[in-house]
Amino acid sequence: MGWWWILTLAVVGVLIFSVFAFTLIRWFAKHEPYCNFLNLRSRRKLTFIRLVMRDHRVPWYVKTIPVLLAIYLMSPIDIIPDFIPVLGYMDDVVIALLAFLLIFKLTSGPVVTDLLQQARGADAPAS
Predict the structure, then answer these.
(1) What CA–CA distance (Å, rounded) separates 87 from 42?
(2) What is the pLDDT of residue 26?
(3) Does residue 69 form part of some domain?
(4) How far is CA 80 from CA 68, 72, 84, 112, in A?
């Protein structure tokens, strides 16, 4: 197989993965409570994760998801190595989005809504 085939396969793979990532993000942006999560500022997203980890209404197996995500993101072993332009980091974004999807699906709706409101309320000044 010549190097043109390898290059062509790599470009097609990048395009397919990019379309998948874009579609996943667009889907998140159109559905509740995912759109509320995406609209949070970065610090409030971390606050949401902290609230999930501390809330007694969240099952223990859901609390392991952010821990496993942090281990994966800090690990030098990736599905797609980070030195590959665009794809190296895009796979980390997709994995993180899928982890949050799992958190939302495995936790009851009212609990997620309450935690998102608490995280958003952390931005509001105390009155």
Answers:
(1) 22
(2) 83
(3) yes
(4) 17, 12, 7, 31
